[in-house]
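Why do we bother with holo predictions? Because pocket geometry can differ from the apo form. Keep that in mind while you read this record for magnesium ion.
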Amino acid sequence: MYTVALVAQKGGTGKTTLAVSLAVAAGQVGLTSIIVDLDPQATACNWKDRRKGDGPVVIDAQPARLAAALVKAAENGVDFAVIDTPARNEQSALAAAKVADLVLIPCRPQAYDLETIPNTKEILALAGNTPALAILNAVPAIGDRHEQARALLNRLQVPVCPYMLGNRAVFGDAGAVGQAAQEYDPRGKGAAEILQVYKYILSTLVQLSKDKTKQEHHEHQSQSDRAAG
Ligand SMILES: Nc1ncnc2c1ncn2[C@@H]1O[C@H](COP(=O)(O)OP(=O)(O)OP(=O)(O)O)[C@@H](O)[C@H]1O
Ligand SMILES: [Mg+2]
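The structure, written out:
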């Protein structure tokens, strides 16, 4: 099971929008996905209440119960778990970053969002340097703010997803009826953007998992060599 966590200390950056979009995207390619909602505002749970049809399952959990919830999800055959976290809550962000394979940091290309990135980085460090990926969200159609944001994130040494989401009404409209943008308007630009971002995240997760296996193999080999003298 792959686990991603949406973390950003600033409110309204698009954590829940991305959480539901990615969980739906995984479902659309045949994976079993789940959303674990750590936000006391329960935005993802409320989205699910408005949703017609099956999947993804959305469960509300507390940080202290997160690890257990994920063990259960894996036992039940979940392939892709998405943790949505509240803004301005270091305890939840830390708990999510500790259990995630990859932390996703949605970020609007504006100073208010960007200035909270160092704080998010501190949380990642506390969690044991969980790999992270910033995703530029609600990028205006005009201007080069996204390029400035990308340059700043590079300086802060935060990897940035090469694909970004535009500022599009479809994300809010879809959420209002318990859908993701790619369901509300499958041929729209928002749908295409989500698909690109989802694919990039999946390929990053696959690569991280390969790296981890290699590292574990290497450590095992070193241990055996030491034991053999
Ligand atoms: N790409 C986008 N284009 C336009 N509107 C967007 C986009 N992404 C998110 N929004 C809108 O911005 C608002 C905040 O998004 P969302 O709830 O996903 O953020 P959040 O980070 O989960 O917020 P919170 O910190 O309160 O949990 C919502 O009204 C949502 O519809
Ligand atoms: Mg939210």
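The two ends are 37 Å apart (CA to CA).
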